[in-house]
């Protein structure tokens, strides 16, 4: 009961609080209603205050306009005065008035902009339209001054300094307006500092690099480059010593001018290279760009250092352009070298037909001016190229070797042509052999001089293709000499074998006289070519002697004739061998040993022993054929078919292989074909 009583008391207290709260809420609602009616009563009063605010704003604007009226009324007068100042080159005063009027215009435009009065802005711009003319007039004078700055800083730097001060003022105004960023007046930013650089760079380019060099060859290009060199050094000295003092440090005017000259030169050289320069022009350009430009004569001039440094600006000519220009130069030099070499060869060819023998050196060796002329020409071009770059020197060196190889080919053709003329008439050229010998000496001189052309003195290796060309030319001259000897030998060789020859004649003595005459000529050739000629001559004599024996002109009819033939072979071979030994050719180097060996086959008395003798013969001379042996056996005149068959069968059972060091002799000898048996007797045609 007591618990229920306590709950009822709590509920009664809560109801009392709710009743009290309801009364307070009702009181607040009444107060709010009263306030609402009070606000409605004073709304008309607020409308009156709004109209007053508008009037106040208009009054403020009117007051501002009234304050500006004197300035606005004087605008046209100020325009005229500023224009007069500009015409009188009072640039600082003119610029001050110009800034004042721009400030006035910009203030008015800013206010109108903030109030969104765009129509009024148009009116203001029209009213201040003269500012555009003043700006243009001032700018024109400024850029004229900047364009002539290099001259002015030497003669009268005041104008240039004035121009720089005006540009600096405008630059500060531009920076301030850009920072505010809420309103940008018309014509801003002017960017006169950037324009200053452009005009200065344009003036430099226009003064020294206006178009390409019209006279791009020889002295004209050299004068043009020398003028550029002199003017650029002079201008940079003016910039370094005078102009730097007339502009703020942050302009970096010396660096700007240096870079401008560098870039302008790069473009200018490219323009010149587009023209068809001769080799001298290309060389001048490469030398100037790669050597002179960085030398103490130009950008490394003592008056410019250390402030001027072009090393950070990159090369004046890119590596690709240098390589391209070097290749053009090599092409031009190649054409020139070809022309000079061709003229040299033509002169040499004419000298071969002279009535006089070729010149001799202090040792009595025949020679001509050809190798000296050719090597001097090639060496001079290689040395000239070394003044530019190692790569150009290497290119010219490679070209020189190619041209020398081609020249040797044309020399061989000239030798062949001379040989053909000589075949038509052996009296022409009069000293045919002597000039062939001089050519051999010339080839030796060329061969020994080639290594001196290489840029690296330690590198003495001659390219294989050039060495082969030298060998081919030497072989051609040697071949023509041997052909001449052969023509003189053949009439003598036609006389053997014969009965008259067997019985004794002066045939071999005549051959020795002929050989001795040629050997005397060969003495005018340097070693080892002289020895080579003797060896080839001895081989030719031996092969012609053996060839004559194998022409089936004679067959021994008796033992007496075989003995006589054997003795004649011994005497002839001994006489010839002694001759060549006396000329300096060792016995082991001679091919006449084959005649001695053949003599053993002839002198053998028992034909049944021929198999062993022939086996020894073919072992010593592995290039001998069955036809050769058959012909030699026929020459004996006493060999039966059975013995011959046995000998040939023995040869078939013992095939021979030519050693690498073997010098063939029989392989060059052709044996006449045997006559075929025919059943009908020879007789006259019916």
Brief summary of the model shown:
71% of the residues lie in helices and 1% in strands.
**Strand order in space, largest sheet:** 1-2
CATH fold-level assignment of the largest domain: Tetracycline Repressor, domain 2
Structural class: mainly alpha
N-to-C CA distance: 186 Å
Task: Please state roughly what percent of the residues sit in beta strands, choosing from under 5%, 5-15%, 15-25%, 25-35%, 35-45% or over 45%.
Answer: under 5%
Which CATH class of the largest domain is shown? Answer: Mainly Alpha
The count of domains is 4
What's the assembly state of these chains?
A: single chain
Query: What is the count of β-strands?
Result: 2
Low-confidence stretches: 678-686
What shape does the CA trace take?
elongated
Strand/helix succession: HHHHHHHHHHHHEEHHHHHHHHHHHH
**Helicity level:** over 70%
Rg over CA atoms, rounded to whole Å, is: 56 Å
Largest sheet entry:
2 strands, antiparallel
Q: What is the CATH architecture annotation of the largest domain?
A: Orthogonal Bundle
The CATH superfamily of the largest domain turns out to be Exocyst complex component Sec6, C-terminal domain
Overall pLDDT score:
85
Tally the helices. Answer: 24
Organism: Turnix velox
GO molecular function, one term: SNARE binding
Family: Belongs to the SEC6 family.
Keywords: Cytoplasmic vesicle, Exocytosis
């Amino acid at each position: 009961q007591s618990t229920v009583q306590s709950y009822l008391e709590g509920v009664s207290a809560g109801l009392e609080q709710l009743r009290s709260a309801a009364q307070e809420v009702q009181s607040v609602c009444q107060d709010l209603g009263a306030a609402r009616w009070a606000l409605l009563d004073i709304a008309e009063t607020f409308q009156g205050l709004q109209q007053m605010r508008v009037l106040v704003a208009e009054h403020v604007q009117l007051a501002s306009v009234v304050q500006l009226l004197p300035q606005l009324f004087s605008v046209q007068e100020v325009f005229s005065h500023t224009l007069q100042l500009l015409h009188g080159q009072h640039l600082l005063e003119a610029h001050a008035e110009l800034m004042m009027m721009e400030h006035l215009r910009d203030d008015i435009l800013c206010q109108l902009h903030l109030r969104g009065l765009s129509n009024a802005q148009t009116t203001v711009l029209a009213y201040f339209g003269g500012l555009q003319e003043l700006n243009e007039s001032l700018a024109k004078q400024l850029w004229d001054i900047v364009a002539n700055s290099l001259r002015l800083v030497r003669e009268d730097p005041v104008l240039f300094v004035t121009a720089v001060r005006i540009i600096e003022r405008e630059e500060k105004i531009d920076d301030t307006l850009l920072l505010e960023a809420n309103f940008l007046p018309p014509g801003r930013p002017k960017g006169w500092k950037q324009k200053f650089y452009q005009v200065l760079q344009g003036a430099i380019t226009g003064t020294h690099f206006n178009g390409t060099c019209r006279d791009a060859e020889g002295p004209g290009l050299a004068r043009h480059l020398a003028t550029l060199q002199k003017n650029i050094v002079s201008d940079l000295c003016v910039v370094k010593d005078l102009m730097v003092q007339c502009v703020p440090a942050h302009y970096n005017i010396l660096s700007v001018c240096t870079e401008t000259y560098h870039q302008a030169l790069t473009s200018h050289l490219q323009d010149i290279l587009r023209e068809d320069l001769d080799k001298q022009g290309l060389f001048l350009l490469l030398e100037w760009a790669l050597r002179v430009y960085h030398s103490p004569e130009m950008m490394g001039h003592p008056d410019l250092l250390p402030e001027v440094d072009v090393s950070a600006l990159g090369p004046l000519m890119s590596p690709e352009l240098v390589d391209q220009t070097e290749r053009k130069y090599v092409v031009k030099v190649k054409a020139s070298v070809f022309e000079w070499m061709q003229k040299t060869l033509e002169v040499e060819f004419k000298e071969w037909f002279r009535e006089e023998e070729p010149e001799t050196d202090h040792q009595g060796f025949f020679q001509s001016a050809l190798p000296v002329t050719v090597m001097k020409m090639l060496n001079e071009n290689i040395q000239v190229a070394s003044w530019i770059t190692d790569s150009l020197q290497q290119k010219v060196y490679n070209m020189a070797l190619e041209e020398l190889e081609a020249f040797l080919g044309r020399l061989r053709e000239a030798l062949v042509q001379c040989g053909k003329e000589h075949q038509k008439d052996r009296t022409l050229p009069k000293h045919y052999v002597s000039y062939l010998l001089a050519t051999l000496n010339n080839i030796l001189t060329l061969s020994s001089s080639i290594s001196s052309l290489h840029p690296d003195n330690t590198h003495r290796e001659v390219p294989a293709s050039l060495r082969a060309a030298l060998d081919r030319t030497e072989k051609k001259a040697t071949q023509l000499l041997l052909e001449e000897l052969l023509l003189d030998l053949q009439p003598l060789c036609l006389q053997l074998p014969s009965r008259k020859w067997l019985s004794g004649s002066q045939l071999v003595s005549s051959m020795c006289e002929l050989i001795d005459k040629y050997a005397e000529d060969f003495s005018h050739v340097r070693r080892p070519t002289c020895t080579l000629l003797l060896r080839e001559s001895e081989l030719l004599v031996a092969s012609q002697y053996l060839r004559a024996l194998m022409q089936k002109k004679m067959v021994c009819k008796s033992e007496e004739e075989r003995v006589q033939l054997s003795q004649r072979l011994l005497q002839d071979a001994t006489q010839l061998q002694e001759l060549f030994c006396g000329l300096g050719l060792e016995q082991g180097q001679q091919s006449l040993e084959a005649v001695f060996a053949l003599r053993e086959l002839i002198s053998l008395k028992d034909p049944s022993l021929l198999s062993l003798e022939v086996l020894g013969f073919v072992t010593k001379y592995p290039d001998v054929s069955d036809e050769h042996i058959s012909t030699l056996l026929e020459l004996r005149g006493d060999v039966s078919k059975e013995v011959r068959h046995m000998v040939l069968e023995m040869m078939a059972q013992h095939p021979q292989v030519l050693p690498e060091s073997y010098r063939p002799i029989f392989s060059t000898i052709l044996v006449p074909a045997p006559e075929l048996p025919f059943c009908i007797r020879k007789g006259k045609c019916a």
